[in-house]
Every structure is written in structure tokens, then in C-alpha cells.
Design a protein that fits this description.
Two copies of one chain form a homodimer.
Chain A (H helix, E strand, L loop, with lengths): L22 H22 L5 E5 L6 E4 L4 E4 L3 E5 L3 H23 L3 E2 H8 L14 H15 L8 E2 L5 E4 L1 E5 L2 E4 L8 E2 L9 E6 L3 E5 L2 H9 L2 H4 L2 E5 L6 H13 L4 E4 L4 H12 L8 H4 L5 E4 L4 H4 L8 E2 L2 H11 L2 H4 L2 H13 L1 E2 L12 H13 L5
Parallel strand pairs in A: 5-6, 12-13, 12-14, 14-15
Antiparallel strand pairs in A: 1-4, 2-3, 7-10, 7-13, 8-9, 8-11, 16-17
């Protein structure tokens, strides 16, 4: 009698994959396998297994003036199996890599929370957990990303889903044709994974992208059909845009050759959001290459708008100590420090002693922002770079 | 020579409306006008102007056992213009009502932040602001809602946009036909305002609605095309669902006669989300009538799932003091206190001493939740009510 097939105990050992893999998936699997191969080779040659992982410390991050984004240096940290202080991290790294391999092979994706639960277990014969908490797993996921020079999305790990899109653009997403010009009042939710194997651009009539900070502002623009009148694409990222939004903006900018204008608040947080969209973030410098958009422009709000737009003193919000500290830090960012217009912008905000939200323009008229403010800035090509 | 027309100074006085108003808009305008008419009538009859506003205090909220949702009692508070302590609130109420009137007449909508900026100004001849901060404006908006017996959405004020939908449903949104079965990996963003004048259901083949707590879980179900296999609609609300999501669930449940099953975490927060979806919230009791879904069912996670699903002890999360306190409070809610299954559910969680997230099921298999957990509960009709 044939033995009954047993389901493998370890969740990271999938059943034989029955899914068709994309070219990108094959590439990712190749790099995951080569990681494992190097361990085997080392073992066969009786060398203690190790991994060299690019360092994500501040000291290994620099602003590349030619490329105009933040990138990682060449510093690496060696992680050795036969080193008591590093053995656990070494094993965790291998575990995350094997989890990613299982996801890619099965054609499935999960969140960082899902990855944590997928891999969390008590190591056989011990009371030791593979990961005690989420915070132990997250940096290891980043390690695997940098070590393999891949994006998290290529490892089939998704981030938070926030942000929506409407406009004169048609793309295919997982086989469905998405016409962003027929998306009603809600818009299409920008997925977390927008790599070319998921999203393929089909048709784009739009001439530029307007990216706004918040969904409330986005809805004013959508309700007024700004994107139709001005033939553009309209996106928001729910505050600091998540990875999926940044990556989609990056792809649209480069592949569809569309300029990107950012409408953000006149405050340090708005400046910072712009900085991350444009130059990448310091913490995740290794992803700048495929996330940063050095060509992005800042359309406003500007510190001078209080006078220029004749706003009422009622709408100003006083800067607090934290705002002032952050503004001074941002002024010193290497990519702002040499730019006179940005220095003047931040100086004026500090001199004003107040900040302004995009929503404050509604005090002029409900549609002032869509009918006057942005059209005027676009007509004058009046942006901060 | 003809005088040049001047733009009116007050932003709440719109230009003659050129938009076509829906029936609902006419109804809303009627109630707004009758509010103003009562002031005029009072003045003409030399009576001091006043408003009677239904009380939103806890004492005026009760659970209606017949209707099975939380509702407001008949208590009212009088707000008088010629009362120093009430004059400002009286004027603020009139101001919000006039702001809403302007929005409806112009066929535009805004956020509570937008409403605040729209109305904020220094009162002529004084140093007094109409509203000092957002927190002064929000309760007045709620006052206008209850005084007029309207929903915020009918006053053209939108809330946060979060939550997505996919599944076998077609509706029209602001003129665009939205086919939720062709929404790729991202899904359709559920708008904040989903009243019948915005969204009209066109075609529904689905047999039920599965509402899940988080977007990360939603994506597992969408990626596995659960809604296609099980012929349903799949929604999430990004945690505690915002008003638009609750209202859309309510409309689909009542108008399309679809049962709603909620997949939430096994923790006090999951219980609370269920409670709000089902019975309404205590703070906003006046909206239950059109938001609450007494027929909603709780599909899990359940406290007994740790044993039933043979989960690893690695995935449990210990209850903290706050969890225990909240769980005991929720057990005492009038709509849970008489339900033995709910009492057992909460007791078992407290006895377990731990909570479980939906994501923890991934430790069984990436698709355990979509292929085993929910299908088994559906087949057995095993729900908490």
C-alpha cells in the first residue's frame, strides 16, 4: 500500500510550484539560490559560512550629486555562522531568504507581518524562537533586500496599501485593464507591488502627474475633474507616500516621460515628503535607485503664498519648537544646502513663524486650489526644484 | 458705465449655482433653509432665537433591542442666541449650516478640515475667531447633522478615504461604471460619500460580503481570487472602517440583500470593530440608522482557534492590562451581555491569556485562511452573531 503523502512540516518548504513564473521571478529565484549556493560552496571547502551584507548605517549613505539621489556606499558587514554574536542573525537571514523563495515559487505575496508569522517558530530541541517579535524580522528583510540587490516587492513582500490614482492613463494590473479615467469618485487603489510583472502601461494621454499629499485634497481635484481639464494623472499617498506609490510615480516618470509636480503643505513635514519622493530616504537608501525621482518639482504651498494669495491671518498655524528644529535640519540636507531657492523658502517660513496647509486655500474659495493656485503655478512654471 | 461686479467677501456666499442638484440635495437644502426660516420667524415674532439640538451625551444613547442597534433618545439641548454662554455656539451652528448650504448649492464637497478653513475668520470689528481650532468645529458639524437629521455625507462633508473593494458587483460612481470584478491587485478605493446620488448599484451576482479588517489580509484574499471562487464581494476598512465603508456595507446588505461576514482579529479591538459595524458606535449613535448592520456575522478569529486550528504557541500574543480591561468592558455591552456565545468567546480569550491575529494563520500555510479557514466556517455556517 502506498504511503500517504505527508504535508511537509516546515512552512517554508512549499509543494512543487504549479505557477508560471515571470522573468523577474526567475531572476529573483536565481539570486536567492546563489545565496544558498555560496553557503554550500563554503561548507564543501570547509570554510566557515558567512554573508557579506551592505551596511545600512548612516556612515555608509551618501548623496550622489551626479545621479541626484541618496545611495549606499560600498561598506559591508560580515555575518558569520560560527560567531556566537552573529549566529542567530545569520540563521534569520537564511530563514527570510528561504521564506521569500517559497513565496516566489508559489506565485504568492505577503506583508512583513505575514513573513514574520510564516517564519516564526520555536527552534527544535530548544526554547529559542526564530524571531521574538516583528522588530527582529524587519531589519533582516532589509538585509536580504540589500544583500541580493533586490527590491522587497521582487521578493513578493508587500507594504502598506494607501494612495489612489485617477487620470488619463490605462494600464493592465494582474490581467485586468484599469482605465484611470473611469474611476468615479473613489479612484483606483495604488497597489503595493507595481513592478512590471504586475502592472504594464497600455496607454497614456496625460502630459504630467500632479501628486498631492492627502486624500482630502485629492478629492477636491478629482471632484473638479482637474485631471481631465489639464490632461494629467492625479495621485496621493495618504501623507508620506508608501513604497507602492513612490515606485509607481518613479515608473510613470521614467517610462512614460511625465514630469511630476508635488502639491504639499508648507511645513517641515511637507518638505520632508518632497525630499523622500525626490532624493530617496536615508533609512532605505538602497532603494533610491528605483524609487527616487530627482526630476520631481515642488509646486507649493510656498512660504510666500500667505502674501501672494492674500490669505487671512486666521488660517496660519504657528510653528512649534519641533517644527523649527526639523526645518533647520532639512535646510542642511546636502541636496537642499546648495539650493538658494530652497534656503530662501525655509528661511521665510522660519521668519514667518507659521506654516500653511494646502486646505487653507479653501478660505479663498472651495475650488481656488484647483482653478487658480495650481493652474497659475503651472502656467508660470513656478516651481521649487 | 456699469459697475464691475465684485466677488462677495464671505466665502460662504456662493455665486448663483449652475449645477444640477439631486433629489437628495434638494431635500438637504430644504432642511437647511427651514433651520434659517425658524430663526427669521422667531425674530419677526420678537422671540429670542434658539435652536433645539438633540443631546449627544451618553445619557441620551440607548440600545434599541427591537431594531438591534444603538440609537439616540429624545433629549434635547436648547441653544440660545441671547445667552452669553451659548451665543458663540449658536452662531457657529448657523455658520456651519450656511457653509453646508454653500457646498450643496455648488455641487461640491469637502473634508471637516476644509469646512473649518472655509468658515474660519476673524469676526469683523473684533479679535474673536469664528473657530480657534479644528476641535471647535467638529462637534458643531455633528450638531448640525443631528439637528437636521441628516448624515454628514448629505451635507457634502466627507471623512477619511480608506478601504477597498473587489468582487462580483458593478455600480455607477459619479457617472463611471465600476466593475469590481476587474480591479486588478489594487481594487477600487471606497469613497467617503456613497449615498445613492453618488453610487448606484447596477449588477450584483455575489452571494455574500466578506469584510476583513486589514488591507494586508484583503490582499491575500484578492491574490487567491477568493471572491471569484466563492462568488462574493471582498472589502476591508483599514482597521476600524471609516464612515464610507460602513455606509457602503449597510447599503449592500439592505439593498442587495447580501449577508455580511466579518473576519477580524481575536482581540478586544477586533471585537470592538465588529460591535461598531453591527450596532453602531456610542459616540455617533444618531447615524446608526443608516450605518449599523445588525445582521452582520463574526466569522473569526475565535479564541478556540488556537486549539481548533492547531496553531503553534509561537504565534500567540499575550494580553496586556489594557486588553483585559477592554475585553471586560465589551463583554458588558448591552448587545453582548445577553449573548452566551459572545460571553464564552470573551471568557475563553481571558482564560487563554492571549490574542491572535488573522495573519497568524499564515503559520499553517500562506493560503490557509483563504483555502481552509474561511471556507470551513462558511460551509458549517459557524459564526458568532
Amino acid at each position: 500500500m502506498a504511503k500517504k503523502a505527508r504535508r511537509p512540516a516546515a512552512p517554508v518548504t512549499p509543494a512543487a510550484p504549479a505557477v508560471e513564473l515571470s522573468e523577474a521571478d526567475h531572476r529573483t529565484l536565481g539570486t536567492l539560490r546563489s545565496l544558498a549556493d555560496r553557503v554550500v560552496e563554503g561548507a564543501v571547502a570547509s570554510r566557515p559560512p558567512h554573508l557579506d551584507i551592505p551596511s545600512r548605517s548612516l556612515g555608509n549613505v551618501r548623496f550622489n550629486k551626479a545621479k541626484r539621489f541618496i545611495e549606499m556606499g560600498s561598506g559591508k558587514n560580515r555575518r558569520e555562522l560560527f560567531n556566537l554574536a552573529q549566529a542567530k542573525a545569520y540563521m534569520q537571514t537564511m530563514l527570510v531568504a528561504s521564506g521569500c523563495k517559497a513565496l516566489v515559487e508559489q506565485g504568492k505575496s505577503t506583508s512583513i507581518r505575514g513573513m514574520y508569522y510564516l517564519l516564526k517558530h520555536t527552534i527544535a530541541g530548544t526554547k529559542e524562537e526564530t524571531f521574538d517579535e516583528q522588530a527582529d524580522c524587519d531589519p533582516i528583510i532589509e538585509d536580504v533586500e540589500v544583500a541580493l540587490n533586490t527590491l522587497r516587492e521582487e521578493l513578493h513582500i508587500y507594504a502598506q496599501n494607501k494612495g489612489s490614482i485617477v487620470g488619463n492613463l490605462v494600464f493592465r494590473d494582474s490581467g485586468d485593464e484599469i482605465d484611470c479615467s473611469r474611476m468615479g469618485s473613489g479612484g483606483y487603489t495604488i497597489p503595493s507591488i507595481v513592478e512590471p510583472n504586475v502592472i504594464q502601461f497600455l496607454k497614456c494621454d496625460a502630459k504630467f502627474i500632479l501628486h498631492v499629499e492627502k486624500d482630502t485634497v485629492w478629492r477636491r481635484f478629482n471632484e473638479d475633474k482637474f485631471w481631465r481639464k489639464h490632461n494629467c494623472i492625479l495621485t496621493h499617498g495618504g501623507g508620506q507616500p508608501p513604497r507602492g506609490v513612490r515606485r509607481l510615480l518613479n515608473r510613470m516618470h521614467h517610462e512614460l516621460k511625465l514630469p511630476i509636480y508635488c502639491l504639499l503643505d508648507n511645513d517641515p513635514w511637507g518638505y520632508y515628503i518632497y525630499s523622500v519622493i525626490k532624493q530617496g530616504s536615508i533609512n532605505l537608501a538602497y532603494e533610491s535607485r528605483r524609487m527616487a525621482i530627482p526630476g520631481a518639482k515642488f509646486v507649493g504651498l510656498r512660504s510666500r503664498d500667505f502674501e501672494r494669495c492674500e490669505l487671512s491671518p486666521s488660517v496660519i498655524i504657528r510653528l512649534n519648537d519641533q517644527d523649527i528644529k526639523r526645518a533647520k535640519q532639512i535646510a542642511q540636507y546636502p541636496w537642499f544646502v546648495d539650493k538658494k531657492p530652497w534656503q530662501k523658502e525655509i528661511e521665510l517660513m522660519l521668519r514667518n513663524g507659521f506654516k500653511l496647509e494646502v486646505e487653507s486655500l479653501i478660505s479663498k474659495d472651495i475650488s481656488y486650489v484647483t482653478e487658480t493656485y495650481v493652474p497659475e503655478r503651472l502656467a508660470e512654471q513656478d516651481f521649487l526644484d
